[in-house]
Amino acid sequence: MNSYKYARKQGTAIEDCVQHNESPMEQSYLEQYLCWGRDTLVPWLNKVLGSCSDITGNQIEYHIYQVFCNLRINKLFEIIVDFPNSEPALTELKVCVFETDRYKFLKASLNRIISRRLLHLGAQTSDIVSIFVSSIKCLNFLDPTADLLSSISMLIRNYLRTRPDSMRSVINILTGDAKDSDDMDLENSTISNTFSDILLRNGFKGKVLRDQQLPADITTTLVKIFDSPDVFIKEFQTLLGDRLISRSDYETDRELKNLELLKKHFSEAKLHQCEVMIKDLMDSKRINTNICNNMDPESRFVNMKVLSRLFWPQFTFEPQNHPPCVSRFLEKYDALYSKLKSMRSLRHLTNYGTVDLDLEFEDRTLSLTVTPAQASIIGFFDGKDTLSLSQLVNLSGKSAQSVEKLVSFWKSKGVLKQNMNATISVVERIDDEGALVEQEMTDVRGHEEVEQNVEAIPETVKMFRPFVQAMLGNLGSLPVDRIYTSLKAFGFTESQDKLRAYLDSLIEEDLLEAAGGNVYSLLKK
Amino acid sequence: MQLMMANIPGVSAFPEEGNLLSWIATIHGPVGTVYDGFTYKLSMKFPLNYPFTAPTIRFETPMYHPNVDTAGNICLDILKEKWSAIYNVQTVLLSLQSLLGEPNNDSPLNGQAADMWSKPKEFREMVRQTWKEI
C-alpha cells in the first residue's frame, strides 16, 4: 500500500516537471524518466521500505508510462496542430499507449477532442481541412492500421459535408501546397533505439498488418469527404478554368503539376477535360505568337487564349460592341486565325480577361489594369470629348444600367465627369476640372450628387429606413461610421459610401438633418 | 429586429452601442392624454436569460405618473410577476404607452400623482413641470 502511495507521489512530480517545461511537445522526456525510475527511485524505495517493500521496477515503469500517456493524450489536439514539430511527443504517446494498453482510451479521447475543439461554428473550413490533413499524418504514424483515422475522419467528413465551402478548401489544400502529399513517409523518422525495441517487442497489430493495409493517403481521404469523385473533379475543373483564364501569361507548369498529382488518384479518363484545358493554353501560346508575328507591329497589343468550347466549363457570353480601334484589330486576328486553322472561327469572350491601359491626358498619364468592359467605355471617348449617356448605350450595346455603372467607375478615377446637361466628358486637365470632381464627391450636400444618388440607391439600402429612424430617434445624433457599423451587424451589405448617399437623400426628404460634418440626426418637427 | 423594421408610430427602441442587452427606447405620449406632445426616453436592460425573465425598464426622462416613482422605476404587473416569454420589446413598449393613459391608481408608487389624476388640468401642469429634455 505504502509503496503505491509513493509511486503516486512520484507520478504527480513527473507530471509537474513536464507541464512546467515551456515547450514540452518538442522534446522527448520519457527515456530520461524511465532511467531515473529504474536507477534512482527503485533502489531508494527499497532502502526506505526495507523488507516490506514489494515494489518492483516494472511497477514504477508502468506507472511512468501511465502518467505520460495521460499527459500526452490531454495535449493531443496541440500535438496534432503542431505536427511535425511535436513529433517527439507523438512518439512517446505511441510507446506509452502500447505499454499501458490504452488504445481504446486514446480513441475515445481523440473523438471527444476533435468534436469539441475542431468541429464547431467558430472554426474556418480551411482550418478544419488543414487540421484534418495534419491529423491524418499524425494518426498514420500513431496507428498504421488506420483504425483511429477512420473513426475521426468519419466525424470530420460528416461535418464538412454540411459546409458549403468545404470543396473549395479541399482543392486549395490539395493544389495549394502540393508537397504535402509527398512527405507522407514517416517510417524512417527518428525513433530512438529503446523505443523501437519496445515497439518491435510488443509487436502491436499495426506491424503485422502493415503489408496488407497501407496507411491512408491524404488525397484519397480528403476526396472521400465528398460522395463521388465526379463532383470533386467538376469543381476542380471550374477552379482550374478560373485560374487559367485569370492569368495574363500562358504559364501552366503549376497547374500541370497539380493535375499529374491528381492523376495518381483518379482514372485518366476523368481528368481528360482538365488535360485538354491545359493543352489549350499551351496551343494558344503558339498560335498567339504566330499571329502576332504576322501582324503589323503597332497592333500587337492583344494576346488571346484560344479555348475549346466543349471542354471548358460554361462561359457567360455577354454581347458588347468595341471601340473602333479594338474591333478593327479583332477582325484582323480572326482572319489570321482562320487562315492558320481552316474551318474554325473564334468567338470572343470579351467579358473575361484584363486590359492594361495607358491613358494620356493633356496634363497627365494614367496606367491602369481594368476589365475589358471598363476599357471599352473609355475607348469610345477616343477622339471625342463629350458623349451623352444614350450615345454610350448605343455605341456599347449594353444596358443603360451597366453603362452607368461603368461610367461611375471612371468618374471615381477622375477620368470622366458628368456635366450639367447630363452629358459625360473627359477630364483633360486635373487642376481646374479635378478640383471640381473632388468637391462634388466630398460635398455631401452637393445638389447634383444627391440627385444622381437617389436614382442609384438600391432597394437593399432603402429597406433600412425604419432602422435608421429608430436608431437616430433613440440614440440622438450619430456619425456615419457608427450608423454603418450598427447596420452591418443587422445584415447591411452595401458600402459606407452608399449609406452616406442614402442618408443625404433622407436629408432631402426632410427626415434627417446633418449636424455638422459626418454627424446625422433626426429632423425635429 | 422586428420592431426596428416595423416602424410603429409612437414607440421605438434601439440597442446601445456595442451592447445588445441594453437598449434605449422612446415613447411618445398618447394623443388625447395628459402626456400628449411629450417624448419619454427609457432604458431597457435585458437579463441573459431573456425572454424567460422580464427586462428591467426605467424612465430616463423625469416622469410624473401614478405608477412611476421619482427615480423612474415602473410598477407594471407584466414587468414583474405576470411576465411571459411571449412578450417582446414591441408589446412591452405598447403596454407602457397605454399605461400612460390608463394608470392603475389602486397601487400607486407616486401617491400625489394618483390623487391628482382626477384633475387633468393640474395634472397636465405637473407633467409639464416635471418633463425635462435629456
UniProtKB/TrEMBL annotation, chain A:
Keywords annotated in UniProt: Cell cycle, Cell division, Mitosis, Ubl conjugation pathway
Cullin family profile domain mapped to chain residues: 187-411
Entry annotated with the keyword Ribonucleoprotein: no
Signal peptide residues on this chain, from the entry's feature table: none
Matching Pfam families: ANAPC2, Cullin_AB, TPR_ANAPC2
Top-level taxon of the source organism: Eukaryota
Alphabetical GO biological process terms: cell division; metaphase/anaphase transition of mitotic cell cycle; protein K11-linked ubiquitination; ubiquitin-dependent protein catabolic process
InterPro entries: ANAPC2, ANAPC2_C, Cullin-like_AB, Cullin_homology, Cullin_homology_sf, TPR_ANAPC2, WH-like_DNA-bd_sf, WH_DNA-bd_sf
Entry's Gene Ontology molecular function annotations: ubiquitin protein ligase binding
Record bears the keyword Cell division: yes
Annotated Gene Ontology cellular component terms: anaphase-promoting complex
The family this protein is said to belong to: Belongs to the cullin family.
Name by which UniProt lists this protein: Anaphase-promoting complex subunit 2
Taxonomic lineage of the native organism: Eukaryota, Fungi, Fungi incertae sedis, Chytridiomycota, Chytridiomycota incertae sedis
Automatic annotation (TrEMBL), chain B:
Biological processes, Gene Ontology terms: deactivation of mitotic spindle assembly checkpoint; ubiquitin-dependent protein catabolic process
Domain of life: Eukaryota
Cross-referenced PROSITE patterns: UBC_1 (PS00183), UBC_2 (PS50127)
Single GO MF annotation: ATP binding
Active site (UniProt): C75 (glycyl thioester intermediate)
Residue ranges constituting the UBC core domain according to the UniProt record: 1-134
InterPro entries: Ub_conjugating_enzyme, UBC, UBQ-conjugating_AS, UBQ-conjugating_enzyme/RWD
Sorted UniProt keywords: ATP-binding, Nucleotide-binding, Transferase, Ubl conjugation pathway
Keyword Nucleotide-binding: yes
PANTHER family documented for this protein: UBIQUITIN-CONJUGATING ENZYME E2
Family according to the record: Belongs to the ubiquitin-conjugating enzyme family.
Name recorded for this polypeptide: Ubiquitin-conjugating enzyme E2C, isoform CRA_c
